[in-house]
Write a structure and sequence with these properties.
alpha/beta, 7-stranded parallel beta sheet, about 30% helix, binds 2-acetamido-2-deoxy-beta-D-glucopyranose
Length: about 375
């Protein structure tokens, strides 16, 4: 940690960052959605799509193109067409590290910049991400499908009792994040996890804050990949130690054994690193909060859930969002795994109203399908 930060900052992160998967807001955009205005008959309404079991068509889907790929929906929407740039590299790997990148990112402060970070810590971490897998999120693990369908599972209370588990698991890839409790909630949230996204800060805070709710370990699995969100130097240092299978040598996680979090398999192919420039692009284009210019500007970060959902939108052909905030958020608890109903909480480090409005707009444009429930 080379950055002086007061106790308030850490308290906000401890309290706030752990809730980042659960997108809560003051959004009051009530009323019925205008289904399929643009997508028309080719795109079923979300309520149909979310109640029809999808497992049944997974066998026949292979080799068939998407009915309505999200890139096509983006093209048809003037607002989002100007925001999306599908050429932006999503991941940072060895091949993309250059003097130019160092010069540019070392001018920017954390989160997402490298100002004050020792070059050796960045360079040595990135040099380990040198396989072709490291540069691609969906990689070459299996033959490329014609339509890659992804589910991103936030931790919002809307999933309690939702029975969406089979629908979630029917997707080709499932993204989860932070306090993703699965045991005991399989019917509602499914069991499949292809990606688990986090910063070291949010992962460790989730393990503390949601322990009693059952989040006693980070999800593991042979096919599971971890997505590091580099918000601080500690993320690079932890990532390097995880790939090398050694204890963290320095910084605030000094002495940690990465295997306690990620399991015994230490290899570069297990880990992905979001490109800091990709996160800055997302923040600038999609999540430009007024907080960037307010007194909270040094705290502001998109939530982990927002980063995972936007990552999926840049890597998959179709994306469904489960457990993300909807206009009737107040009917649901903070998290699906809460023992007693908790009201939603707003923290200065995120802008959940902005995120909620974005999911709604993307849903209306047919770019993603937002799981909704009347409760
Ligand atoms: C999209 O991103 C690529 C890669 O960063 C960049 O070269 C290109 O100029 C961008 N295009 C637009 C329209 O922003
Ligand atoms: C990647 O880097 C490691 C460590 O420096 C090296 O052993 C390995 O051969 C490299 N792999 C590739 C594909 O370049
Ligand atoms: C979860 O759903 C059950 C059944 O509908 C309900 O009894 C319980 O209060 C809910 N939990 C929370 C935390 O809202």
């Amino acid at each position: 940690m080379g950055l002086p930060r007061g106790p308030l900052f850490w308290r906000l992160l401890l309290l706030g960052a752990v809730s980042s998967g659960i997108l809560l807001t003051l959004l009051s955009a009530a009323g019925r959605p205008h289904w399929g205005l643009r997508a028309g008959a080719r795109y079923t309404t979300a309520s149909q799509a979310f109640t029809r079991p999808k497992a049944a068509d997974s066998g026949t889907r292979k080799g068939r193109p998407c009915r309505y790929p999200l890139a096509q929906a983006v093209q048809q929407d003037p607002h989002f067409r100007a925001l999306f740039n599908f050429s932006q590299p999503v991941l940072l790997a060895a091949g993309l590290f250059s003097q130019e990148l160092w010069d540019s990112l070392s001018q920017r402060r954390a989160p997402y910049g490298w100002q004050g970070f020792p070059r050796q810590d960045i360079a040595s971490t990135l040099s380990l991400l040198n396989s072709s897998d490291s540069a691609q999120l969906l990689g070459s693990r299996e033959p490329r499908r014609d339509c890659i369908r992804c589910a991103v599972v936030g931790n919002g209370g809307i999933l309690n009792g939702s029975r969406q588990g089979p629908n979630i698991d029917a997707h080709d890839y499932v993204f989860r994040l932070n306090g993703a409790v699965i045991k005991g909630f399989e019917k509602d949230v499914g069991t499949k996890t292809s990606f688990y996204g986090f910063t070291v800060n949010t992962m460790k805070n989730s393990l503390i804050a949601y322990r009693t709710a059952g989040f006693t370990a980070v999800p593991r699995g042979q096919d599971l990949r971890y997505i590091f969100i580099p918000s601080d130097l500690r993320d690079y240092v932890m990532l390097r130690s995880a790939i090398l299978g050694v204890r963290v040598p320095s910084g605030i996680d000094k002495g940690d054994r990465p295997q306690t979090y990620f399991g015994p398999e230490a290899s570069a192919s297990k880990f992905k690193l979001l490109h800091p420039a990709f996160i800055s692009y997302l923040t600038e284009r999609f999540l430009k909060s007024k907080r960037i210019i307010s007194k909270f500007k040094d705290l502001y970060m998109p939530s982990t859930g927002a980063l995972m959902l936007l990552t999926a939108l840049h890597a998959c052909d179709q994306v469904s969002a489960y457990g993300f905030i909807t206009s009737n958020f107040w009917k649901f608890s903070d998290h699906y795994f809460d023992r007693v109903k908790q009201p939603l909480v707003f923290y200065a480090n995120h802008d959940l109203s902005l995120e909620a409005a974005l999911w709604w707009d993307l849903h209306k444009a047919g770019i993603l399908q937002l799981y909704q429930h009347r409760a």
